[in-house]
Amino acid sequence: MPAVVVEDLSKEYGRLRAVEGLSFTVAEGEVFALLGPNGAGKTTTMEILEGFRDRTAGRVSVLGVDPATGGRAYRERIGIVLQSAGFEEEFTVRELTRLHASLYPRRYQPDEVIDLVGLSAKRDARVKTLSGGQRRRLDLALGLVGAPELLFLDEPTTGFDPSARHRAWDLIHRLRDLGTTILLTTHYMEEAQQLADRVAVLRAGRLVAVGRPDELGDGGRPMSTLRFRLPAGISAGDLPALAGKVATTDGLVEATTAWATKDVHTLTGWALERDVELVGLTVGHPTLEDVYLRLIEEAGDGD
Ligand SMILES: Nc1ncnc2c1ncn2[C@@H]1O[C@H](COP(=O)(O)OP(=O)(O)OP(=O)(O)O)[C@@H](O)[C@H]1O
């Protein structure tokens, strides 16, 4: 049974359609990332799955439960790391982590969790004295101390310095190894590439694409990136029309395309005809960020 099933989910805030006809599933033990620009509907979707927001239409099942009616028994099985949780400022890190642990029937050792998130040195510090990044790590500790079967991570490393981010990634890998299903949102494509087994790209409340980070493409077609130097005496406007999107920066032409074979054929045919050399021509694998930007841009073409 999948850990999460979302079918034709919609959410309206008054006249605003924040989520529209969204469907996806997440397998047990999978790390699944929701990606999308600001306002795409990621947090709304996460909150509906967490059971903190009602939905307008659609079917949702998480760990075999409808979060809207799962109540406390459901909440004890999930962990939530919010973008900015309100803390009890006077508590110490250890006190607050212990308090949270006591709310859950299954739990990890609070001190071990504090070590895991890299807050050992701040164990006895009051929450109000923590830096922004340290607070985010405490968010993480509180979200996972209840040994959740499914962990929701909303932008888990925003505000982390690079080494803290890498440590958080290690931690998330470890949680996955323990069998925890993880749903995360992030604006860092490298993070999604590092962590997620699969990603879903949302735009304006709709699903644009879903798949493994290295296979994500246009309508299921994987993407490639073509690169070459603009030949001398040729301007970007002289190049033939390609199926992919072309950008020229400082004389370097880059095309992200789901039709690499066709576009290479068009380009080389054009170059041979004009007897120009496409210096440095490569066909490579685009980064998730390249693909993401392309998908978002294309999805916005109808605006
Ligand atoms: N409580 C609310 N009342 C009215 N509109 C809301 C509410 N919460 C969110 N929205 C709107 O719904 C849309 C989706 O918001 P949501 O927070 O789900 O986006 P997001 O993808 O998480 O964005 P971000 O990347 O900025 O966190 C936005 O247009 C937002 O303004």
Automatic annotation (TrEMBL):
A single GO molecular function term of this UniProt record: ATP binding
Q: What is its main location?
A: membrane
Domain of life, per UniProt, equals: Bacteria
Pfam families, per this entry? ABC_tran
Lipid bilayer topology: Peripheral membrane protein
Which InterPro entries does the entry mention?
AAA+_ATPase (IPR003593), ABC_transporter-like_ATP-bd (IPR003439), ABC_transporter-like_CS (IPR017871), ABC_transporter_ATP-binding (IPR050763), P-loop_NTPase (IPR027417)
Question: What protein is this chain from?
Answer: ABC transporter ATP-binding protein
Q: Which organism is it from?
A: Micromonospora orduensis
